[in-house]
Amino acid sequence: MELLGAFLSLLLFFLAVVTGLPSRGSQTTRFVKANGTQFSLDGSKFTVVGANAYWLSLANLSEQDMEKVFSEISESGATTVRVWGHNEMPESQITPQTIYYQSWSGNKATINYGANGLRYFDRVVESAKRHNLRLIVVLMSYWNAADGKTGGVETYARQMLTTPVNHGGFFIDEGAKNVFKTYVKAVVGRYRDNPTVMSWELGHDMICMWVGGRKCPAGSLTAWTRELSSFIKSIDPNHLVASGDPGDYNKTDTDALEYSGWAGLDFEVNIVMDSIDYGTFSLSGIDPMRWIDDHVETATLAHKPLIFNKFGPEIYQEWLDKLVSAGVAGSFYWQFGSEDIRMNMPYWFYGDYVPRGSHTYRLLVDHAKAMKDRP
Ligand SMILES: *[C@@H]1O[C@H](CO)[C@@H](O)[C@H](O)[C@H]1NC(C)=O
Ligand SMILES: *[C@@H]1O[C@H](CO)[C@@H](O)[C@H](O)[C@H]1NC(C)=O
Ligand SMILES: *[C@@H]1O[C@H](CO)[C@@H](O)[C@H](O)[C@H]1NC(C)=O
To answer: Which GO terms describe its biological process (predicted)?
Structure first.
């Protein structure tokens, strides 16, 4: 018996060496973590660089097309892909080809766990894993893309709120908040132990300007951001959490809209929250050189990493150089697209993707390398 025991331990040891499994009790973690202003993985720096591809989890891609998309993204030097982890649709808009994660009948929402729902998202996560790519999963969107067919805050507003116009009520209405929390709990809980997910973002470009015809009450988006990010942390201690906000400031003396508090958010307030692990910002009307410098300064003060979440499809070398030299931890261009896949909907009406092989695409391939080559 003792000999058998010794033999088994030896066998397990060799298996662990051969498969690279972490031995029990080691500090190895396969989850991406934040370390000061950088990201880390297993004690080494992890560079977050890649593409937005919001449609990837909404298009009804075949298994081959899904593999094709992820291998093309991987070939570009990306380490991470930013995708939508939500799609909420009124029942009347759902067709047999629709991928949706929540359906609405009147003001009642139902989570879709089926093959055209969260099981489809399982396929996205598995395919990303096969290509050694990680996902930033965005749980809501302020905008409804693809000509109003991809849900977002707007669907909640139309189905649930008495003041559906200028949908800021999404952040204030207790009923809407509870429905969103129920959904968040289902998704976050499902992938809680899955390290292919790099982080959760509360929403894309979340701003609060108007509720009905009135200005969004001061601080309501800030309160929502704090409540929802803490809620995710309470369900899932493994993953990073970010707001996904576009980075606007709330300063009193300013010459520009983006610094004036107009968006109902304050980047400086969001990034220092205990339940927020890194800062996000998107290309705005401000000169990118100034916009990048200001966000780096705020993130450095907060000792947290920073991701430039959205820029493009027009992209300049100068911006890319700036991201590298200023020490921005991650960048995602908008967006990856592929000509020859079959989809249920044309997700890029506005020519808003960077064609593979284009001049801009080559700049982005070099950029991914430059981001990774930094010490
Ligand atoms: C965190 O970053 C510091 C350098 O800033 C490095 O020395 C340390 O090893 C990093 N730790 C992890 C866990 O990545
Ligand atoms: C912006 O600043 C004003 C004035 O200091 C304050 O009343 C408001 O709550 C702030 N808004 C946010 C989103 O922090
Ligand atoms: C996706 O939708 C298209 C168009 O409706 C359809 O032709 C195709 O068979 C669907 N593919 C899958 C994998 O469901």
So the answer is: mannan catabolic process
Domain parsing of the chain, residue ranges: 1-30, 34-373
User: For every one of its 375 residues, what pLDDT tens digit does the chain have, with 9 covering 90 and above?
Assistant: 444 455 445 444 444 444 444 444 344 569 999 999 999 999 999 999 999 999 999 999 999 999 999 999 999 999 999 999 999 999 998 999 999 999 999 999 999 999 999 999 999 999 999 999 999 999 999 987 665 666 899 899 889 987 666 788 999 999 999 999 999 999 999 999 999 999 999 999 999 998 888 899 999 999 999 999 999 999 999 999 999 999 999 999 898 999 999 999 999 999 999 999 999 999 999 999 999 999 999 999 999 999 999 999 999 999 999 999 999 999 999 999 988 889 888 777 556 899 998 999 999 999 999 999 999
Cα(281)–Cα(267) distance, rounded to whole angstroms?
8
Q: Is the CB of 97 under 6 A from ligand 3?
A: yes
Residue type, 296: V
Q: Which residues line ligand 1 (CB under 6 A)?
A: 35-36, 40, 43
Could you tell me if the CB of 220 is within 6 A of ligand 2? Answer: no
Protein residue whose Cα sits closest to atom 14 of ligand 1? 43
Across 341-372, b (16+ Cβ under 10 Å) vs e yields: eebbbebeeeeebbebeeebbebbeebbebbe
Select from 3.30.160.20, 3.30.70.860, 3.90.550.10, 3.20.20.80 the CATH code of 34-373: 3.20.20.80
Q: Percentages helix, strand, coil for the chain, rounded to the nearest 5? A: 40, 20, 40
**Nearest Cα residue to atom 3 of ligand 3:** 344
Contact 195, 244 (CB under 8 A): no
Query: Which residues are CB-neighbours of 10 under 8 A, at least 6 positions away?
Result: none
Q: At what angle do helices 317-326 and 359-373 cross, to 10 degrees?
A: 10
Q: What residue owns the CA closest to ligand 1's atom 2?
A: 35
Q: Whose C-alpha lies nearest to ligand 1, atom 12?
A: 43
